[in-house]
Amino acid sequence: QSKEDVFDAYVAHGGRVEASHWMPDAYRKTLIRQVSQHAHSEIVGMLPEANWLISAPSLERKQILIAKVQDEAGHGLYLYSVAETLGAKRKDLTDALIDGRAKYSSVFNYPSLTWADVGTIGWLVDGAAILNQVTLCETSYGPYARAMIRICREESFHQRQGFEALYRMFAEGTDAQRSMIQDSINRWWAPSLMMFGPPDTDSNNSAQSMKWGIKIKTNDTLRQEFVNTIAKQSRIIGVTIPDPSLKWCPVSGNYVFTQPDWEEFYEVIGGRGMCNQDRLENIRRARDDNEWVMDAAEKYEAQQGNYAAGDPNHA
Amino acid sequence: QSKEDVFDAYVAHGGRVEASHWMPDAYRKTLIRQVSQHAHSEIVGMLPEANWLISAPSLERKQILIAKVQDEAGHGLYLYSVAETLGAKRKDLTDALIDGRAKYSSVFNYPSLTWADVGTIGWLVDGAAILNQVTLCETSYGPYARAMIRICREESFHQRQGFEALYRMFAEGTDAQRSMIQDSINRWWAPSLMMFGPPDTDSNNSAQSMKWGIKIKTNDTLRQEFVNTIAKQSRIIGVTIPDPSLKWCPVSGNYVFTQPDWEEFYEVIGGRGMCNQDRLENIRRARDDNEWVMDAAEKYEAQQGNYAAGDPNHA
Amino acid sequence: MLEDKKNQLPKSAAFTLTLADSCFIQTQRLCQWCGQAPSLEEEMAISNIALDTLSYARYLYQETINRVELPETPDTLVFKRDARQYRNFRFIELPQYSFADLVLRNLIFSSFLQNMFQRNKIADEKFYSFSEKAIVEIQYHVDHAHNWIRRLSVGTAIAKQRIQSALDIVWPHTRELSLFSEEFDVTDHLQSQTRCSWHHRATDLLREVGLALPSLPDRYRCGYDGYHTEHLGRLISETQSVYREFPGGIW
Amino acid sequence: MLEDKKNQLPKSAAFTLTLADSCFIQTQRLCQWCGQAPSLEEEMAISNIALDTLSYARYLYQETINRVELPETPDTLVFKRDARQYRNFRFIELPQYSFADLVLRNLIFSSFLQNMFQRNKIADEKFYSFSEKAIVEIQYHVDHAHNWIRRLSVGTAIAKQRIQSALDIVWPHTRELSLFSEEFDVTDHLQSQTRCSWHHRATDLLREVGLALPSLPDRYRCGYDGYHTEHLGRLISETQSVYREFPGGIW
């Protein structure tokens, strides 16, 4: 019995892998890729929301939004540290992101064009993220699973806040606000469906990842759960899901729905979406403009003799 | 009879001095200082107006404002070239401005805080400038006098536009617009009075400058003309000049008015006004951010073999 | 109000509205250079171009209104529509972080616009005298861009690198211009004069000065269909701030 | 509406309104760093501080309203006043071009604010429990600024030069804080504890790390008297853009 076989059997029986354990290279690499993509998504995901921090139309909404974006920075930080337990370096991961070598959730390459988008991102985008993340609380790699538990708790909170913001505006607001919300749902529906990845028939890596317990449910399964949940919630808010074919099928117990435009998905994933350039430009600019700051911090810590390798923030 | 005496007599009899003529060093220095201050004022004076280009509330007003600011850049350019006929270098003059060694009109160290300020600057600030400049059309240095003739024509146009903008808003606009205008006049009145410089009793250099025909009327004479004109025009618009003591004196044929706070004037001239830092920071930033552009232009011209000394724009 | 989808507008009005909005947004981006240009000569050149594009915007808004016979004015189209209703090309709304951005946007937009007016001059009698004048003016904008792109690409290594980076960002967006030409059937009118099409002239220049042209995307969501970036909203809210603060104001 | 001159407000309300507006504008300036900070750790630190200053703003707006008994809410004070009616300290509204600006503004504002709350804790019963909590929180803001000023001043020559330039710009504005303390009679309450006044602590630090303190102006037009820069107008118009676009909106 090879080490690999022992490992596979351990994982198959629900065993938790820890950083100190031996693990197959492919497992490590797959995890680093998945965890860092997840971390990048948190970081890039801050940007469409940050766009509305200054003009949030009430003090309470401003507070909620600052706290939410802060949580996302926290999730990013937490997830990068999970990747670090696997031997990755945060700087390398960030460089790969900026150079366009790393991926992140396609949904953040769509722009947030109105205030309603803040609510919609909470409701639909965080809603989709949670479905995926909840399953990952059971994932085989211990540090990742524990991160997911904490992150899910906060994400659920964000989703409820998004739902509540839309509900309130739609129920008590003006016609102009209702139009703004419907327009927002129209734009974010398809990108949200795409968040679960391509149809199972086109999804690579899935089989091995599921075997390793890095992935728990298939893309299509999760997507269907999402549609079922959102279709019901949309009626509570009062908005229309922009899919004329959407209807309840009592036989399957699911909502039937139209697939999003997968060609567009591959364009966005390939770096040619509406905001890909903008997002990376933003992160590159933040890194370059502040290089002198991080440099000074590093030199200072070195002078103080308490400099550990790596990021000055860790010192 | 010394060269100086001949020169003084020539000027005293209304003779025009040209760039090729001999002139006393002090005359040359005084002129360079005055002309470059005037040029700097045009350049810095663009900034409070540029602040409203993006949010000008009608397309026509936007067009008028772009054209006005463009005229000011043109005046600056023209005046720098007058200073160049006297042997000054534009780059040195600009460096002196950025380093805080050179002066410019104190009035541009006040902020333009509302759209009404665009009208008020045209009416009061350009109005004050013209009174000074009209006399300079007769100044002894030929290139300066000729520049002034052209500049005055454009400035009068700007002043009429400012007056017309305020008049129209005040007559046909809303109460909120009228409040905005009155607030604007309240803020710009004293700074406009200061534009003519300190009271004659405190004004240095004046006697020599008048003898040389570089200066034609005294500060107080011009200021009184300004008050007389504006007091009348203010009644046409319907605004109140913020000076409770302002009243017509039939004996002197002048309006009696309160002197502005001269201590404040000296603070502003000394670099400690509300916007001094901001204005110079803006100009410094424009220079530094575009250094690579001017550098490339210069190198390109040199490679093409058609590079003359100095500014690549001249090549 | 023109708040409806572009495809509810007659095609000829959708055509002029996209050009009008693009000219207007270009004016706004150029205005942001005021007091920030590399030299006084450039201050004047940039505001010259801005005055021209503003005048085209005013003319084209009026044309749009005439074609749909709505009780609008150019001002209400600018100040009362929200960002979602603007129809400008998307690359026009992107911030101009450096002078390299400015000259490249200017190159692309001006030479494209010149072609559009050439087409209109042929296709539409009403446009004739406007187009004739504008085509001549725009040649100055194109020359200005050409001169600077040459200087920056050849002048220094750092300038070349900056203009290449700026090109990498803006060039893929030119896909929108060919889609627009197809959709509005402009290509035919220019086929006889292909060699002077904006695209040929621009690529000739860019190659000649040694810049690498990035590839174009296959699919592109168009600004003229209402797909904008987050930058447009901020620009429009600044554009309308005074207007909105004084309801019923007379300017 | 609180649109009247500050001196028509009761003194105690003018005091809280200036602090409230300053906390609010500081929040806005901090929010502009979101996605632009030097590291993820700083993203979190800056939004922490922003959340605190926002909560002080909300409390202090409510206090202002209680003191004048007007039918306002913190939201109407923020979203319905124009920039001319804001009463914040002027240095708070200046743009933060670099991280050096951020840490210096934070040093000055946080340590000053801590002193104000210390004074209030003593002088005003109603403030006691709010102040006690805020004083502890603000210590974190002050420490954050101290740590960074030390790192930047000692770390590299270029960082030292940048922080010195930033100090040259902001320091003269601290004149406003002493004028405010005099006008609102705050100095007395702190005299017994002079050594821990914000000014002493800040100057001690700045001198210790080798920065040169620029001189203060004799006269100063104060933000709390309504003298603002052109920067505030732009910030307020962005602040209010959504609110103004949807009259009668429910958020």
TrEMBL record, chains C, D:
It holds the Pfam family PaaA_PaaC. InterPro entries: Aromatic_CoA_ox/epox, Ferritin-like, Ferritin-like_SF, PaaA_PaaC, PaaC. Coiled coil: none annotated. This is 1,2-phenylacetyl-CoA epoxidase, subunit C. PANTHER family: 1,2-PHENYLACETYL-COA EPOXIDASE, SUBUNIT C (PTHR30458:SF0), PHENYLACETIC ACID DEGRADATION PROTEIN PAA (PTHR30458). GO terms for cellular component: cytosol. Gene3D superfamilies: 1.20.1260.10. NCBIfam families: PA_CoA_Oxy3. GO terms for biological process: phenylacetate catabolic process. The lineage of its organism: Bacteria, Pseudomonadati, Pseudomonadota, Alphaproteobacteria, Acetobacterales.
